[in-house]
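Quick question about two entries, pasted in order.
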Amino acid sequence: MLKGTFSTVSRGDGISSKIEKDLEKFLLMKGLGRDELSPNYVFVIGGDGTVLSAFRKYIEVINDVKFLSIHTGHLGFYTDYQAKDYENIFEDILTKEPKLESYPLLEVQAYCTNGNLLSKSCALNEITLNNTKGKTYKSEIYIDDRHFENFRGDGICISTPTGSTAYNKALGGAVINPNIEVFQAAEIAGLNNMLYRSLGNSIVLSKKEKLTIKPMDQEENHRLSIDQLFYSYDSLSKVEVSICKDKRINFIRYNEVSFWDRVKRSFIGE
């Protein structure tokens, strides 16, 4: 039986709100306290977008929080329970010992042209870098400060293993088991000519490596997306991306559903 404090993050539609109220009533009856600032457990009712919102809400205490999600949204890759059988969670909490799963996050640092740090953040799924005006994006790509390629195209998408099933997958990137601590960079509509030559495939980097993107021939109109957040910069010299060394996201699982079972359920069908 769980002990400690909890909070809930809901998609806010009718069925999600009903499940949230039932779950809150059950947890309070079993002795758990409600804590919106630094809970031990966060119960997410919605889809993967709601999970991203919950992650962002508790990013400052992310290492101390454990998430559990009930699927009522459009896509439920992170979720354990479906809306139709959500009441199973009550018996599972009472009778089962949960399994803990821990997933890596991305750390992203953006620098302006004078060398100052513009922003530092973490991503659960992915970050993308492109042009706010929809123009071709040109950049130099470095791996551990060594030049790798010159890129020209619509942009770059860098994803975590869990994020490999999101935008990265649509770009033709590989789906990666999150037990492998790596991250992946995929081109968005890359173009090749004699001046800008890129690999054309997604690349997978280890947890010890750093990816650096340096914009070329562009002084303004940079757009950096971190999960569902968007930032626009008129002065950007480089973006550095690596596996976050001091933060991870933790989920508690009561069901023995493997990563590949989740992939099949989400994209192929039962």
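Here is the second entry:
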Amino acid sequence: MRIVNGTREGYCRINLYGIDVKGINDKQVFMRSNKLFSHLLLGLLAYSLIVFLWGAWVRISGSGDGCGEHWPFCQGQLIPDSYILKVWIENFHRISTKLYGFIVIALLISVYRQFPKKSPTRKWMTWVFGLTLVEGLIGAVIVLKGFVADDDSIGRAFLISIHLVNTFLLTSTIIFTWLSQKYKCDIFLMKFFKLSRSYILIGFILCIGATGALAALSTTLFPSVSLFSGLTHDFSKGSHFLLKIRILHPLLAIGFLFLAGYKTQSLIESSQNSIHKYWGRIFQVLLLVTFFIGAITLGLLSPLSLKLIHLFFAHLLWMSFVMFLSTRFIPESSLKK
């Protein structure tokens, strides 16, 4: 159903926060379409985690150079003629990211066909598309510049940290799109940032994510034989810069644990919205779980499986944080529908 300037003759008239339709059949069709779109957005959010985790597996397993310095195809072919495992690990990631891009484009077209020009759903879905393009561009530069496998350059370190931050921003815009579509509301970023100075927590968690990506890269390139040996290298004068800066990740995580715990508790206690409080509790639980997994990962010298689990919970933590702040501005009556 196409809507131009909020109206389609003979069908329905739509404004930003409500629906006025001619005929029950048209309303039912629109509501079913709206519900399907909501489910597709949640599916995209789940698929995002799969793509991100597989990308991390590509890096951790040393498969980043499996397709050579070819992009977007693998070894210059649509289907590589190879039986080497790392080639298919990398190629599967490329296939999954291409599929991701097609899904985002399809959803963007759907949004532009169904929602009026000034709809917040249009705005946030456009952001999703833009950040997806940024993801693809970062991936292309990493491949074409050879920032894969055993490369330990500053360029690679910079790009993978930006890569991680961009994935956080991408999932947050998917959540904003879902909220705006489901509850007919907008998420105003200035209110979002100013909520009990939440911009401090947002900056904090993005820095933790960026330094976490660097710490994971350092343990992949420079594995330690013991925790004491790793700490010795961290403070050694002649150590690689990745070893020297990886200590920042656990230090920032400890600071964030206490600051976020205090801030979220004060917001929960001052809130009258039970859904907002619910997401605050979810965030607090995930904060403790993620910190605990991180500590175990560090103590066990960063085994591959724990790295992926830690990254998975880091994304869940970020998404719960976005939901916690967002639901502050949505009426509880709407959230309970």
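Reply: The mean pLDDT is 87. The longest helix spans residues 24-60. Hope that helps.
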